[in-house]
Each structure stands twice: as C-alpha cells, then as structure tokens.
Specification:
about 500 residues, alpha/beta, Rossmann fold, Isoleucyl-tRNA Synthetase, Domain 1, 3 domains, 4-stranded parallel sheet, elongated, RNA-binding, Cys-tRNA/MSH_ligase, Cys-tRNA-ligase
RNA sequence: GCCAAGGUGGCAGAGUUCGGUUGACGCGGUCGCCUGCAGAGCGACUCUACGCCGGUUCAAAUCCGGCCCUUGGCUCCA
C-alpha cells in the first residue's frame, strides 16, 4: 500500500514516506481579495481528498491552510464595490465568504486557518533571523532576501539564477542588490492607486487616495510583510520547521514557493518541505477563467447551479496533477456522473431495505464487481491520488448494482457491500454526500412531494395521463426528479 | 528568449514511471428491451484512437532521436 506522489521538487513520482505516522500538510489556500472561483475550489477539494485518503490509510494528518489577508491585491480592492475603506475590511469580507465557500464545498475542516495579520511577530522574528544569518539585508526601511546567498535558489522551478537575473521589475531594482532578491519586509504602506498603477494603467478610479494599507511597527520602521514570508512563518508556527507536504496551485511554483524554500531553509538550515504537490490549473479552453466570465466561475455560483456533489465530482474528474477544462459540457458530464452514482446508491439502499433482499441469494457477479471496484479505488488513490480512476471504480459499482437490481430477488450481502463502499469511499474519502435527507424543512418538503405523487397516482389510475404529466412536470420544475418503478413512484430531491 | 507541462475516438479524460488485459469511465448520438408517456435502468451499436517522421523490439500510446503545434510560468495569481 505504498502511496506514490508527484513531487515537484524532484520532478518525479516517488514513494511517499513520512518519518512516522503523522503527516504535516500545509496548503497555500487563498488571498482574500476576490470571491473564490472554481480554480481555488479545485485546490481545496484535492487537498481535502488527499487529507482524507491519508487519514483513511492510517496517517494522522495535521492540515493547515493559510488565509493571506495582508496583500497588495487586497489593497487594490479598497474602496471598490462598497467592500470597505480599509485593507482589513476588504479582507474581512472575503475571509468570511471564503469560509462560507469552504463549508459549502463539504471540506473537512483543516486543523487551523492561520491569517497573516495574526502572525506579524513571527514574521518579524523570522526576518531578524535571516538578517542575523546574513541572508537578508535592510535597504531604505525595507528588508530583502539575498538570493545569491542561497545556493540552490531556482531548484524547485528548474531555473538558473543567471537567467532570472535579467528579469524583474525595474522600479524595485534600485533598492535591491540583485534583481532576483525579493522583499521580506516593505517600508511604509501602499495605496490602492499605487497598486493599480503597478498592475493596470486604466484600473478603477478609486477616490480614496487617503486610505492606505495596514502597517506594523518593526525594527526597520513602519511597514508590512513581503509577499512570501507569511507562509514560511505560519508553516513553522503551526506545524514544524520541516513538514511533509506543501501544496498549492501550479502558478505558485515560481516565485512564491521558490522563495518560501529559500527563506525557510536559510533560516533553519533544515529542509522546508519534503514533498511539493502542485494542483494544475483549471482552464476554460479558449477563454480564461476569470470573475468577469460570469456563469459558474465562482464557487458560490457553481454550487447554486449544480450542487455541491456535482461540483466536487467535477473537480475530482481530473487528476490533481493534470490540467482540467471547464465548460458547460464538462460540468454537465460531472453532474451526470454524480446523478448516476446517487441514483444507484438510492437503488441499492432501496433494494436492501425491501423484502426482496434475501440472505440466501448470492450474485457472484455483483460481489466480485464490488470487491474489484474497491481494490481499483484503493490502487487509484495510492497511485498519486488518481481521483478520476477512483470515481471510475465507484461508477463500476453503480453499474454492478444496476444490473443486479434488474432481477427481482436481491443479494443482501452483495448490496450491503456496495452501499458500504459508496458511503466509505465515495462519502468519507471523496466527500460526496449520498445521504441528503436531513433537516426539518426537507421533511416537510418530502411530505408535500409525496402528496403530489399520490394525486398523480390517482390520476394515472383513472387514465388521466395529461393531468398526471402536468403534476410530474410541476415537480420537475422544482428540481424534484420523478421516476416510476415497479414498486410505485420514487423521486430524488435537488442537490444543494 | 528561458523554464515547465501537454498533444489519445464527436466531447471530455484515464492509461505512458516497470513496453504485450478491456479502444477505461462518463458525456453526446443511434437502436432494442422495459414503459400509458417520459425518465431511469439494462443490452447493443457509434470509434480498426493514440501530433508528425524515423529508430529499437517478436511486440510501442507506452522506450530512443528529430520535427511540428498548444498551454502555463518567468509581474499579483490556487
């Protein structure tokens, strides 16, 4: 049961071998400057499933996911769209929305979601250590990391420092010794205008010029932390100097993670993270994924549209280390996959609870199919968390169950195994909620639906099919799927 | 320019690490069974797929060489 993972550090897939049964996992979660879109959700959900699988395999996972609430991107939003007049206010708004999104995605809660604004002392302390050890220098009230002092700089992203020296923004070069040096601490604050002019020429016309970003006192004067130091500080503060897995989006490999490694290892002399897993990006084919695209770009919209389970199924339909395409067609496919799974699950549960489930009936085809599928699921997850294959295994169970229930007598043991597999692997590991019948409002709705169905049955019995169809159509409009079976009508509630 | 990842059937997307089970699974489409109808489900079909050209081999999507193309990063970005 060796688990294999793709390690960006080595560029190869290798056996995952933590030092003991505990796994320290750090995920570069989100900068709270915009509503989270499906790309963010992709990282979260894959990190969530990796956490769940490692736990399933017996590891004690300590999962930390950061919330970057101090950042120029946030400052850029100050004064826009009534988000607030300060960096904290904007960050607060989006931190709350982010947490809501995470809850809605049915993510297992991380051990802690540390925020940058709460870790300024740790950050300052880390910078002081770097200065003491000669890896950082002060310049004009700012502090920079001297990349030429860190020998393996560029190792993660496979870039030579010589190549990199030629690049970098001109305006920052003046204060730095080398173009590749990066800020650990930046003197003073920044205004939205400064950020915007740095990013776009014709950005929003904020009139709040007086508003500035957050600043803190430091040994180098008033200022704010640089772009990468927070992850090093928080990873060490909440986990350890060396952790097992550091995750993030592929776009963070350089410079973010490269810089994290440099500053962390320079400060501690220890390896920062053993395995670097990067979730590849979500693209939309031709168009770029952006909030201006509309439709399902935000997590909230996607969930409102097709439900949590379909969104998760979609995100897990492509392995984390492969690029994924988002489109109406691919999302539709995912909803169909989820629907098939859920229908089959309900079918299995219904059969199991019926009088036709008989202890002495044996369907070898069902039993071996379920056993094979479980083995396939486990092998797929062990093989670099191949969620696509894992989902396939679940769908194989669905097919086996559907075939089996074509008969009139059911193999109790076989169906029980199938239901358990759905709940244990699909539910606990992939985080798909098969059981949606919870809550008082659902109960009331259920009764109302059943009443309508009773009426429809009466109409059908009397041959009033037009009337019966109208009743069914009205339920369909509310998202209630009606399905006539030999045992009478059944229905499925909308997923949300 | 530098770095990285890819090019598989109408779409999407596994398989490539350790060459030789199923053209995975699903979506879409067609037909049949079932059914008052629809849906779901089952069955069958739809496709002699692996960017191009060579090479190694009994055998290559999978290994080697060359070429073409796409995308991403190199500036904040999951």
């Amino acid at each position: 049961m060796t688990i294999r993972v793709s390690n960006t550090l080595t560029g190869e897939q290798e056996a995952f071998e933590p030092e003991d049964d505990s796994v320290l996992l750090y995920v570069c979660g989100l900068t709270t400057s915009d509503p989270a879109h499906l790309g963010h959700a992709r990282l979260w959900v894959h990190a969530d499933v990796i956490d769940r699988w490692l736990s399933h395999r017996g590891y004690d996972v300590r999962h930390v996911e950061n919330v970057t609430d101090v950042n120029e991107k946030i400052v850029a939003r100050v004064g826009a769209d009534d988000l607030g007049e300060t960096e904290q206010a904007v960050a607060q708004t989006y931190t709350e929305r982010t947490i809501e999104d995470m809850r809605a995605l049915n993510l297992k809660r991380a051990e802690v979601y540390p925020r940058v604004s709460e870790h300024i002392p740790e950050i300052i302390e880390l910078i002081e250590t770097l200065i003491e050890r000669g890896y950082a220098y002060e310049s004009n009230g700012s502090v920079y990391f001297d990349t030429t002092r860190f020998e393996s700089y560029g190792a993660l992203s496979n870039q030579s420092i010589e190549e990199l020296q030629a690049q970098g923004p001109e305006d920052e070069r003046a204060e730095k010794r080398h173009p590749t040096d990066f800020a650990l601490w930046k003197a003073g604050g920044v205004t939205p205008e400064e950020v915007e002019s740095h990013r776009h020429e014709d950005a929003h016309d904020a009139e709040t010029a007086a508003q500035t970003s957050c600043t803190w006192e430091s040994p180098w004067g008033e200022g704010r932390p640089g772009w990468h130091i927070e992850c090093s500080a928080m990873s060490m503060a909440h986990l350890d100097e060396t952790i097992d897995i550091h995750m993030g989006g592929q776009d963070l490999v350089f410079p973010h993670h490269e810089n994290e490694i440099a500053q962390s290892e320079a400060a501690t002399g220890e390896q920062f993270a053993r395995y670097w897993l990067h979730v590849r990006l979500l693209d939309t084919g031709e168009e770029k994924m952006s909030s201006s695209l509309g439709n399902f770009s935000t997590v909230q919209e996607a969930i409102e549209s097709v439900g949590t389970n379909s969104v998760r199924t979609f995100l897990l339909s492509t392995a984390y280390n492969s690029r994924q395409t988002f489109s109406d067609a691919t999302l539709h496919e995912a909803t169909e996959r989820w629907d098939r799974l859920e229908r089959s699950y309900n079918r299995a549960v219904g059969a199991l609870d019926s009088a036709d489930a008989i202890a002495t009936v044996t369907d070898e085809r069902l039993r071996t199919a379920v056993a094979d599928a479980i083995a396939e699921f486990e092998a797929a997850m062990d093989d670099d968390f191949n969620t696509r294959e894992a989902l396939t295994a679940l769908l194989d169970i669905a097919t086996a169950v559907n075939r089996h229930t074509e008969d009139s007598e059911y193999d109790y043991t076989g169906l029980k195994a199938a239901v358990d597999a759905f709940e244990r692997l699909g539910g606990d590991v992939l985080g798909l909620a098969f059981d949606t019948d919870t809550g008082g409002t659902v109960t009331v709705a259920t009764e109302a639906i059943e009443l309508v169905l009773e009426l429809r049955e009466e109409e059908r019995a009397n041959g009033n099919y037009e009337r019966a169809d109208a009743l069914r159509d009205s339920l369909t409009e509310f998202g209630v799927e009606v399905e006539d079976t030999d045992d009478g009508p059944e229905y499925r509630l909308p997923d949300a």
